[in-house]
Amino acid sequence: MAWQRKILRVDLTAGTCTSEALNMDWAMAYLGQRGLATKYFVEEVAPSVEPLSPANKLIFATGPLTGTMASTGGRYSVITKGPLTGAIACSNSGGYWGAELKMAGWDMIILEGRAASPVYLHIENDTATLHDASALWGKTTWDVEPALRKIHQDSQLKISSIGRAGENGVLYAAVINDLHRAAGRSGVGAVMGSKNLKAIAVRGTKGVAGIKDPKAFMKATQAAKAVLAGNGVTGEGLPKFGTQVLMNVINEVGAMPTRNFRDVQFEGAKDISAEAMHAPRETDGKANLVTNQACFGCTIACGRISKLDQTHYTVVNKPEYWAASGGLEYEAAWALGSANGVNDLEALTYANFVCNEDGFDPISFGATVGAVMELYQMGVLTKEQLGIEAPFGSAKALTYFAECTAKGEGFGPEIGLGSKRLTAKYGHPDLSMTVKGQEFPAYDPRGIQGMGLAYATSNRGACHLRGYTVASEILGIPVKTDPLETDGKAGLVKAFQDATAVFDSAGICVFTSFAWTLVDVAPQLEAACEGDWSLDNLNVVGERIWNMERQFNNAAGFTNKDDNLPKRLLTEAAKTGPAKGLVAGLDKMLPEYYAERGWDTEGRPTATTLERLSL
Amino acid sequence: MPATIRVTLKLYASLGKHLPPDHRRSNEITLDVKPDAVMADLVEPFGVPPPACFLVLVNGVFLPPSQRPTSTFSEGDVIAIWPPVAGG
Ligand code: SF4
Predict the structure, then answer these.
(1) In chain B, N or C terminus with fewer CB closer than 10 Å?
(2) Could you tell me the domains of chain A?
(3) What number of CA atoms fall less than 13 Å from residue A348's CA on the CB side?
């Protein structure tokens, strides 16, 4: 058993911390992390719950492989009902915090209620206590981490916290750990803020005991690590160039959403790409990228660490931003850059630093700025309202908006609503590039058709991490499919969605799936955990988790009408590139997808499907 | 039939270093090649072994490995090539 078999329940209203045994029957059916925590969530929380009310719960969950020697075994997820979408939210983060929680002896923390005043949770192995956080409220995540280490005189404390965005109710506020790793999407940080919980500081020295068959586990993890090392993507491409290598790829294939999805190719992509991050700057001769970085136990090390040009307008006389910190990943570079037509790499890096510092999702933020810039170009929003001129391409507007959103000043609180609410407020809801209220990531479904279906059906709103068919459609992993075709995409999307649910529930990083399939994951789980983790059963577990999430959303009021894409993508054809003349062919794929899933035409799992999955 | 056609070769990620120094920042170079040139004829002069070419796009469209030894190009084509890469 690689589970610690113990969960921590924190009643913030009563101020109590209690230990409970993990429900092992559920662990056998839902594995851990995303699956198991969602099972707890749907059992304990009414689908109709108001996301920012005390009745909503917030779960921090590890997987059975978290904290073990499995490669990338440092992951944790934050599960709640998301304030941005009103759907199930599950955001996954790396870094070191998840492994630390596991090594303190806990599989997950369930937080409920609301503290009367700001608190933080301190966990030292078996001991969990709530403390006054009044002095930390209003501080950034970058200030909170050293402050808590000082208070507890423990340089090894690992900390997850919210910045001012989470306190101020930015609907896409993130939870940040280890300074720049984020449970980034769907506003899990806003839920944490609504509970008056500033941070969770953990110290765990117990390790992960009780691996079922240590020798077999060592063998299985070593074999799996050899697969990662020998694969060109995970062994070489990701460590050297990070996810950002996609910037030029996606631009070449004509699936780069640009200027709020008006265009599918960005003329400035080369200036904000992985290659640009490696190139010496003209100003100081140094490269933006300093090094790569690994999360706990990761043998891929895709993380980017960057240093800003000290003479850049964003940081002149601001030495707090001169140190090396979390650099641009592809999604952030796209959302802060192409989505707004901004090609200033240093400005994007600065905006990304601010997103980490004050804890908000650069994807939803950047995409919302894209909508604001379009409204500005149309004359709907003015300089007077915004506090700055904001045409597409303005780096100054982008970084100004980042600061306003971080601090809750000026037009920031409006940007903090996300593009769905903001564009509706100003009378142009069609300009919101969202599904279920969540902003799209960096792939235009007109140029990568499968992603349109993946976005439309994602249980947490538009998202690339729920079914990354880009791997197949563009990169040929595991097999190449035609990105412009809709045929066959229903089955492809389902397969990616179900497999990803297993990766997210095991405690490992989904980026391993560029080299691993469940065939590589199964032996690691089988050696570590009691229960049936054969390939066949893992496929069922993944599908079960997907349907459980779907059922929660259906009960929360979502219907087949919400499995949709914005009008722009369905009616305005791509203007350039291989997809020129194409719109997203969702109507061709969705009925087939429902059939593949065993759902009725309204998008509800049928009784037969539920029975087959033991739901 | 013209003696040569003009195409643009783009080499990205770790393949970029094979380009002449003044083309590394833009990752691209314009080439005049014989009309019957295939992918290997484009990359080999720069010291790029064809097996290192993992993702090959011609005007943004995937060129399958099976067609790389035989597929020729047209005037103005843009051939973009990457080693094994992925992201998310
Ligand atoms: S692949 Fe990247 S994101 Fe995933 S665990 Fe490793 S360093 Fe972290």
Answers:
(1) N
(2) 6-203 (3.60.9.10), 245-438 (1.10.569.10), 444-612 (1.10.599.10)
(3) 33
